[in-house]
Amino acid sequence: MPRPASNLSAPYGKLLCVSVVSPNQTVSDPTAVDSVLADAVESARQAVVDLGEGAAGTHLGVEPAGVSAAVHRFAADLPGYGGWQWAVVVAAPPGADAVTVSEVVLLPGPDSLVAPTWIPWDQRIQPGDLSPGDLLPPPVGDPRLVPGYVATGDPEIDDVALELGFGRTSVMSREGRLDTAERWAESDYGPDSPMAKTAPSTCGKCGFYLPIAGSLKAAFGVCGNEMSADGHVVHAEYGCGAHSDTVGPTGAGSPAFDAYDDGAVETVARPAVVDVEAEPGTEAESLTEEESDPETESTL
């Protein structure tokens, strides 16, 4: 497969360091290019052919690349490289009557499918992406953390953290706690979630609500009901139908009608059937007499 940004070796000489214009440009004004450079279309095309990695299609234009260089572009008809272009850099000093091919590269065009801009892993990772064995150190100078010997503004942490030998290396700063509180409040266990809006009461009044330590305990706790948000941090104004004070509906069935017992059996005597066309002693008369026998009652 062709290699993007391929450099040519001899006989095309050393690489000429030029500032190639944007790959999205496909047509330019050839009058702004020296005539010797602008007329070197076939020389540029032959350079692509000599590269041996694909044919040069339609000539798309030429644009200047400095005082003594220009870039010729050709359509690259290569499988998997739809819309890409061959860019051939040609150079010639003032007064020269021939050009030198300095570079041949494969570049994406304006409609090409290209890979997205690279984003480092530590910037694109999202909550829930970490798996066992992954390491994600906090950013340098993370504003959410302060050294353990610095007062955080949270009395329940400061009373312990400031004691020599008992403080953690770092603790959450006030900014970190505010960011956390905002994120938790906007989660599925916040006061504005659909579940909270239909709940009979709030978590702050529920027996399964376990307040967390520190300054955030005024608004957050952990649910201890395995049938609800078990183990999740919930807002005190969140709620669900499994509240400890929830009362279930009373009564059963409908008092407007008597219960129907489909196990009861009613015995009904079948009426006698008389065949007026049958002669005495025939099978039809015998059957009629049998059906009229009270002992042959059927049940429904």
From TrEMBL:
Residues 275-300 are annotated as: Disordered. Residues 276-300 have a biased composition (Acidic residues). Pfam families: DUF3027 (PF11228). InterPro entries: DUF3027 (IPR021391). It comes from the Bacteria. This is DUF3027 domain-containing protein.
